[in-house]
């Protein structure tokens, strides 16, 4: 296993992390489907492979995921990093959602109890909240850090402008600052490269990746013919929007590269992410032991410069304004002089 520091912090995380979203049972059967015995095998296998970074959330399987992960890590608790999240709706009351001071305090206490731990290593706000002042959210997170209930803080699924505003406010007020942004990122979903990646790189916020296989699409098990099969996961939880036909064109190249290495499409897709300098850790979710075992092999896969260039060209997102304007109007004379 390879390791890296998370952002500008001293927190060392495995380059491949384990996502426990599949643990438990709930209202999305195609996602929440891992029982206790299988979960134990998955966690043990992850630990044996050198993974020290485990991710969950209070909203996963109505909190079941947190309970199971806390129990399964057991005596390994102090050797591992537990990340959990808050902000999604966890009850019917108006106050049981969002990033208000009340909900964050309540959610943190509930997560501590479910995880059976005295502290949370990385506490992540799961989404932005347009109904709560940013200052209120950041002050509440800072207070939770000062109380010793959480060690580090991060955000997930925030736009770059909001994260930048938050980091600036945290630094100005001497509050605990975000060290992590957990974002969706894959070969067929490179939107974060427009603004999020430049912001994180310049501010020292480390990226962790969810959805590296785009909900399983990049595993290679789906074809143009079986995509709509009612028994597959994408039929029950097709959450990530992308052009499916373009996705299959990309997948054809991924499979060709995989064949050259005696690898799988999933391994190539994950290895590509691990090769991105701005990525600290890639979260692997699994509902089968063989699936986790296969995906972990991505840590050993080294793609050639030519393969990386081919994937880069094939999957590069179209630039957005004003990014394309800035690139077009960059002064070539100055650029040449500086190189």
UniProtKB/TrEMBL annotation:
<dbReference type="InterPro" id="IPR036812">
    <property type="entry name" value="NAD(P)_OxRdtase_dom_sf"/>
</dbReference>
<feature type="domain" description="NADP-dependent oxidoreductase">
    <location>
        <begin position="15"/>
        <end position="314"/>
    </location>
</feature>
<dbReference type="InterPro" id="IPR050523">
    <property type="entry name" value="AKR_Detox_Biosynth"/>
</dbReference>
<protein>
    <submittedName>
        <fullName>Aldo/keto reductase</fullName>
    </submittedName>
</protein>
<dbReference type="InterPro" id="IPR020471">
    <property type="entry name" value="AKR"/>
</dbReference>
<dbReference type="GO" id="GO:0005829">
    <property type="term" value="C:cytosol"/>
</dbReference>
<dbReference type="InterPro" id="IPR023210">
    <property type="entry name" value="NADP_OxRdtase_dom"/>
</dbReference>
<keyword id="KW-0560">Oxidoreductase</keyword>
<dbReference type="GO" id="GO:0016491">
    <property type="term" value="F:oxidoreductase activity"/>
</dbReference>
<dbReference type="Pfam" id="PF00248">
    <property type="entry name" value="Aldo_ket_red"/>
</dbReference>
């Amino acid at each position: 296993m390879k390791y890296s520091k998370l952002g500008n912090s001293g927190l060392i995380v495995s380059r491949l992390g384990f996502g426990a979203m599949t643990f438990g049972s709930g209202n999305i059967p195609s996602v929440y489907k891992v029982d206790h015995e299988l979960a134990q095998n998955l966690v043990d296998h992850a630990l044996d492979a050198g993974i020290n970074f485990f991710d969950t959330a209070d909203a996963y399987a109505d909190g079941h995921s947190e309970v199971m992960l806390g129990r399964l890590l057991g005596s390994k608790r102090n050797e591992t990093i537990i990340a959990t999240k808050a902000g999604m709706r966890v009850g019917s009351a108006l106050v049981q959602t969002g990033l208000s001071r009340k909900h964050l305090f309540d959610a943190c206490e509930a997560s501590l109890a479910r995880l059976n731990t005295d502290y949370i290593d990385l506490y992540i706000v799961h989404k932005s909240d347009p109904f709560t002042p940013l200052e209120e959210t950041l002050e509440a997170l800072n207070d939770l850090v000062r109380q010793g209930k959480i060690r580090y803080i991060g955000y997930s699924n925030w736009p770059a402008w909001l994260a930048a505003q938050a980091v600036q406010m945290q630094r100005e007020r001497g509050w605990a600052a975000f060290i992590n942004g957990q974002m969706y990122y894959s070969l067929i979903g490179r939107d974060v490269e427009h603004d999020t990646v430049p912001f994180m790189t310049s501010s020292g916020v480390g990226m962790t990746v969810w959805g590296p296989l785009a909900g399983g699409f990049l595993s290679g098990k789906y074809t143009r013919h079986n995509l709509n099969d009612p028994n597959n996961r994408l039929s029950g939880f097709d959450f990530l929007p992308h052009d499916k036909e373009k996705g299959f064109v990309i997948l054809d190249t991924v499979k060709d590269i995989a064949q050259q290495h005696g690898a799988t499409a999933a391994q190539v897709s994950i290895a590509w992410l691990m090769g991105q300098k701005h990525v600290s850790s890639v979260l692997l979710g699994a509902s089968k032991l063989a699936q986790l075992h296969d995906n972990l092999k991505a840590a050993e896969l080294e793609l050639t410069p030519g393969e990386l260039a081919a994937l880069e060209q094939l999957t590069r997102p179209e630039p957005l304004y004003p990014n394309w304007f800035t690139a077009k109007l960059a002064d070539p004379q100055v650029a040449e002089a500086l190189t």
